[in-house]
Structures are given as C-alpha cells and as structure tokens.
Amino acid sequence: MSFGGPIAHLGYFQKEFVERRKWCNAGTFAELIALAQSLPGPASSQVGFALGTLRSGWLGGLAAWLGFTLPSALLMLAFAYGTRFLSTGFGPDLVHGLQLAAVAVVAQAVFSMQRSLAPDWQRIALAIAAAGIALFAPAHVATLFAVSVGAVAGLLIFRSRGSKPAESTAVERTTLRLSRFTGVAAAVLFLAILLLSSLLARLAPVQGIAIFSTFYRSGALVFGGGHVVLPLLENAVVAPGLVSQQSFLAGYGAAQAMPGPLFTFAAYLGASVQPALYPAVNGVLALFGIFLPGLLAMAAVLPFWSGLRKSPSIGAALKGINASVVGVLCAALIHPLWTSTIRSWKDFSIALLAFALLTHWRVQPWIVVAGTALACILLRLV
Length: 382
Prior knowledge:
The chain is mainly α. The chain has a domain at 180-296. It contains 15 helices and no strands. It has helices at 6-20, 26-38, 43-80, 91-117, 121-136, 139-158, 180-203, 207-221, 229-238, 245-255, 265-272, 279-308, 312-341, 345-359, 365-381. Helix 1 packs across helix 3, helix 1 (6-20) crosses helix 4 and helix 4 packs across helix 14 (345-359). Residues 165-173 have low confidence and may be disordered.
C-alpha cells in the first residue's frame, strides 16, 4: 500500500513500525533514514531492510526486503509483458488519487517526527535549513549535503552542552543482530561483486551476466535513490540500444503508479531488453542487481553503528541529523509531492481530509489510500 515514492514509504514505515508496532523509536528511525541517505542504493528499501534486521537479524532483513519489493516488482514484470491498464479509462484518476494519499501520508510523517526530533528552536532552525538545502541544492547531492550540515551543526551546538549519547534512541529494541564479521564480509562482498561482475561481463558475452553487471553498477553508484537513479539507468540501457527510449519512458510512467520502491523499474527494464529468450529471468537478474549493492552497504554499516552511537560526539551529531531528516521530509512534501500533485482546490480538499483521517481519527493508511483513489474516480464520474 506504500504508494508515492521513497519519502512516502518512510511515512508508511513511521506509521506502521514506529508508532503502531513500536519496533524502534523515532530517534532510531531517523538515524536509519540518515544512514540510508548517506549510502548508495534505494533509501526506503534500505530502511525497510534495517527495520527487519532490528527485528530478527539478517533473515528478518531479507524477509522485510522481499515483502516490500515483491508487489511492485511483480507488477512491473507484468507491465513489461504488455499491461497498459493505467493509461486508459479510470487509470489516470486512480493514479492521481494514490498521489494525493501520498501527500497526506508524508505530511502526517513530518508532523509526527517534528514533535519528537525537532522539539526546540535550535532543531527547528536546523530542520528549516535542511529543507532549504534539499529544495535548492542540486538534486543528486541535496539530501546528503543537508544531512551532513545537520551533523556538523549538531556537533557544534549540542556537544558543547555535554550532550548525552543519542537522546531517546538507546532502547532495547534497537539491539542489532549482525556481527562485525558480517559487516566486514558485506563490505568485501560489495566491492568484489562490483569488480568481478564487470570483468565477467567483458570476458563472457552472456546476456544475463551483462544485465546483472549493468544494474549492479547502477545500484552501487547512485546516492539518494528514487528518481536519482533514472539518468543512470537511461545511460545504461537506452544509450547502448538494449531498451528503446519509448519503452523506457512507458515503464517509467507505470512505475509512478506502483507501490513500493521505484528501483523495481529495473525488473521492467530487464524484461524489456531485446532480443531476449527469457525476459522474466532477465527481469529478476536486473532486480537483484540493482538492489543488492544497497543492501550490502547497509549490512556493512549497521553492525558498527550501535557502537559508534554511544559516543557523546556522535550523540550530538545525531541530534542535528535527526532534525535535518525532518527538514528533508518537509522539502520532499513541498517538492515534488505537493507541486506535482495538488492541482486544484478539490485536490487540496481531498488531501486535507486524508491528512485529518490519518492524524485526528487514526484511520489505517490503506483505508485512506483506497478512499482517496475512490474519491478521484467518483469526481471523474460526477
């Protein structure tokens, strides 16, 4: 049900795993977001993987990744085989309703996280500064730059006060079940696959190896996730003629209507490579190729994070990072969600009602998502 892109996904995670299930608290959740934004790969998938790891070790992390990825991956594979239902009839109205729901979900997440992560004027100021950076800095470095500025500002402001480590984050539920050996092994594997897959793709002219290598390299080199990966993918598959420009854009349009991570666009692209004897196999190879580096990067960092966060300096920096995350989420709410979705007073009214249902009446997100989609379809009929 997590429609709306990576920032919306984090809103759903906040509601489901922090507020309702209490797998971790808001501070730890913000740390995971900051970590994911600082690593290559799809940020929301990495946060989901980390939440599963917190809950039940590396198998829990893999289960969380599979659960979060499979819905949109299967839909994108189906679309590669000719599904075009979202471009005709009530499809555009359904998509617009899902986008309006995403606006409400992200607004609810910003509202909730501000109260716990930016409660005083210093951190509110950091959040505003981070929002400005995220809105006006170049897209490919904006989030990382905003988080970095927050870390430095937090260190300067809160370290001098004798800040205790990671205020509000040191709870039993955040104990990690990954060993440091696992972290080192993940880092080595990350680099080894990057080098060996590129070498094998040159030495062995096998389409499957070439597809996996292409998408693994794209996943390993993109920071910020989401739409940032699209230029890399276009250069990787359209420029060499593996996928036509028309097919690429059609798949990108469909990806906007899918729940879950935008990186599942890779499944569509892999299955659309021409010529191909086994499109579904190519789609699966592309899917694993683009997600694997981000998951390995997160697995490499997590075992060392619980030790680092005990440092007073790290604790002070985390206060600034947490406030910056609030600002980054707020910036994403403004652009691209609000600017690309709210087109009229009717859209505003539906989004506002959805926000009220989430925050005041505590309605389940999936009900709000279904309701906003239905409202847009009914408006079309009226």
